[in-house]
Design a protein that fits this description.
18 strands; globular; alpha/beta
């Protein structure tokens, strides 16, 4: 009988999600597997809910054949020689997790990462993405209302929008924001902030989550190329949404024609062209995948240039939350109950809250935890098709000879003390 271990989340007090909910655990037990769950006082599903479906509760997971969690497992909690599955946040060579990756290699741990469970078209199959979009959009709209009131003394209906975690569900958030939307449609917005233009960078699952929240507001979608036209001819009881794809964001440095595939293959051959649109931007929503090889889309040099010119930009919602990445003003991550800081480009200093000179930045780095139950249930359903094969696989064999489905093979970062071929590039980050 193969034994699955579900480790408790310890990254912070907000991390209440689970990789498998009790219903999924019950299915596995009915199939003949054993499941051991580490007790947790903060998990969205209580210990008793797992016990009631047949799981065992134990701090010790050393007898388990496979360990799964959500966020990074602390180095001291890794079990040598065992396969582990979690979001490792290592595939970009993130400095802060290179010691974790080194320990995984040293202890001959097989590391599989949810982020790389992909189909043949490299589309992610197990993710929380939409929930990051839901929570990130809500928190940014909340921050918008607070910033307008506390810094600019402008009363708007956005003041009614709460933190994401204060809503009972995503649907509750949408319904409550819908009330705000009706007020905007009836009474309009202050002249000082109209037209209110939202820039949404990206069109994947995260961006789709943002759009579902925005659907509760009186949105008119326009292309980036229509921004100038609508800056002169707009309605003050509408909000204008522009979705930015790669073709709007970058151009080749040598001036040759843009090609999406070429951009994916040769990020460093491109430069940002977003600056030509930024003077129209009120709310900047960063929901696009980015690596250090990509251009910086929102550089501090631009923000510094406009900071003292009464800029239109009110708040940046950096859902991607790459520290000093595509949004250079994202100098740190924030917490759900304190989601916004002000970054002053002249001093290079940041201050928590909504008031101060500079630019407001929403940078919560684990947004899906604000809707923990719904996010966990959705994630659990997407993971379950892979769990049985994952548990039954013989990890003494090379991964390419294993019985894992191809979607899971692509997610294997380390095996038997070595990086898998697709992840050999991480050696340079480990050895820095």
């Amino acid at each position: 009988m193969r034994i699955l271990g579900i480790i408790k989340e310890t990254k912070n007090k907000w991390e209440r999600r689970v990789p498998l909910n009790p219903k999924a655990v019950q299915e596995l037990i009915k199939k003949g597997f054993e499941v051991i769950v580490q007790p947790s006082e903060i998990r969205i599903y209580k210990d008793e809910e797992y016990r009631s479906v047949g799981a065992k509760l134990s701090i010790d997971l050393s007898q388990c054949d496979f360990i799964i969690g959500v966020k990074e497992i602390p180095i001291k909690s890794l079990i040598p020689g065992k396969p582990h599955l979690f979001f490792s946040h290592t595939i970009k060579g993130q400095d802060y997790n290179m010691p974790l990756l080194q320990k995984i290699l040293d202890d001959n741990i097989t590391l599989l990462d949810y982020e790389k469970i992909e189909d043949e078209k490299n589309r992610r199959l197990v993710f929380f993405g939409k929930f990051a979009g839901y929570a990130g959009m809500v928190d940014t709209l909340h921050g918008l209302g607070q910033r307008l009131k506390l810094q600019f003394n402008l009363e708007t209906p956005f003041l009614q929008i709460k933190h994401s975690y204060q809503y009972e569900s995503v649907q509750d958030a949408i319904e409550q924001i819908g009330i705000v939307g009706k007020k905007i449609e009836k009474n309009g917005l202050p002249a000082e902030i109209t037209p209110l233009n939202i820039f949404l960078l990206g069109y994947g699952h995260v961006a789709q989550g943002c759009q579902e929240i925005l659907s509760a507001l009186p949105i008119i979608e326009i292309t980036p190329n229509q921004l100038e036209e609508y800056s002169k001819n707009y309605e003050n009881n509408k909000i204008y949404l522009s979705i930015f794809k790669e073709e709007h964001l970058v151009e080749r440095k040598d001036g040759s024609k843009f090609s999406l595939q070429d951009y994916f293959d040769n990020n460093s051959s491109y430069k940002s062209k977003l600056e030509r649109y930024l003077s129209y931007c009120s709310i900047y929503m960063n929901a696009i995948y980015w690596t250090p090889q990509c251009p910086v889309f929102l550089p501090n040099s631009y923000l510094k240039e406009i900071q003292n010119e009464n800029p239109k930009l009110i708040i940046i919602g950096d859902i991607t939350c790459d520290i000093e990445g595509s949004v250079q003003a994202t100098v740190k991550s924030t917490w759900p109950d304190n989601p916004v800081f002000i970054y002053n480009t002249e001093t290079g200093k940041e201050t928590d809250g909504y008031k101060g000179e500079g630019f407001a930045v929403m940078a919560v780095d684990n947004l899906p935890c604000e809707f923990p139950k719904e996010a966990s249930d959705t994630f659990s359903r997407s993971l379950m098709p892979f769990v049985e094969q994952m548990l039954l696989n013989d990890y003494s064999k090379p991964i390419n000879e294993s019985t894992l489905p191809n979607e899971m093979k692509s997610a294997c970062i380390t095996h038997q003390g070595k990086l898998e071929d697709d992840f050999k590039y991480l050696e340079e980050f480990i050895n820095k």
